[in-house]
Amino acid sequence: MADHGSDLTALVLTCTLSPSPTESSTEKLGQQVLDALATHGVSGSQVRVVDHDVRPGVELDMGEGDEWPSIREKVMAADILVLATPTWMGQHSSVAQRVLERLDAELSETDDEGRLLTFGKVAIAVVVGNEDGAHHITAILYQALNDVGFTIPAQGGTYWNGEAMHTVDFKDLDETPEQTDSATATAAANAAHLARLLRGEGYPAV
Fold first, then answer.
1. Looking at the domain assignment, is residue 96 inside a domain?
2. Are 25 and 171 contacting, i.e. CB atoms less than 8 angstroms apart?
3. Residue 204 domain flag
4. Most exposed among 54, 72, 132, 148, judged by the fewest C-beta atoms under 10 Å?
């Protein structure tokens, strides 16, 4: 592998509704994104959010038993956030919505020069499902993540939608479609490039 300079890290927040150890199409595509990022010198890991007690709310810490603060530590330590969600009833999952609501608290967290702590971080979207809706969901994720300070790279998303009215899951495919592989490779390359640029020279002070 070529020398990409300083190491970058990525975190996939997998927002499947299925707790571990159930197989997950969302987790599978999220792992493919991590594998693609690894070719650009980015190491990473996944957190299956539903396995944790993430309380409803828009604060950094919603009190005793809330496990979001420990997940947030991993988010803030990573250079790239990958938000991965299944499609349910044409929308992102309720778990993904919970994550977005908890990230809202970042609007109040700034450095000494008035910049959000997320300003140096890149985010990409991953969507899977058996019906159309990936573009709609990706648009929602882009807006929400950008609003709370993340930077979205060019073509910073990948997705797979199965044929309408059928029941095939992404995790059951013998091989990933070429179009999805291509989108994953592009999102990973652009995210790593952008994260490296932001690490070298961040946004100006407010």
1. yes
2. yes
3. no
4. 132
pTM: 0.95
pLDDT in tens, 114-153: 999 999 999 999 999 988 889 999 999 999 999 999 999 9
Examine residue 183 and state whether it is found in any structural domain, yes or no. yes
Residues forming beta bridges with residue 42, ordered by sequence position: 8
> Which tokens hold the place of 43?
């190491």
Q: What is the pLDDT of residues 31-90, one digit of tens each?
A: 999 999 999 999 999 999 999 999 999 999 999 999 999 999 999 999 999 999 999 999
Count other C-beta atoms under 10 Å from residue 186's C-beta: 17
Task: For residue 128, give the nearest of 45, 74, 184, 79 by alpha carbon.
Answer: 184
Dihedral sign computed on CA atoms, order 81, 142, 144, 51: negative
Report the domain count for the chain.
1
Range of the domain at 121: 8-199
**How far apart are the C-alpha atoms of 115 and 120, rounded to whole Å?**
9
Q: List the beta bridge partners of residue 122.
A: 80, 151
Q: How many CB atoms lie within 10 A of CB 153?
A: 21
Dist CA 111 CA 119 (whole Å): 10
Query: How many residues would you count in the chain?
Result: 206
The residues with which 48 forms a beta bridge, in sequence order, are: 14
Tell me, yes or no, whether 3 lies in a domain: no
Three-state DSSP class for residue 13 = strand
Nearest to 109 by CA among 64, 153, 61, 144: 61
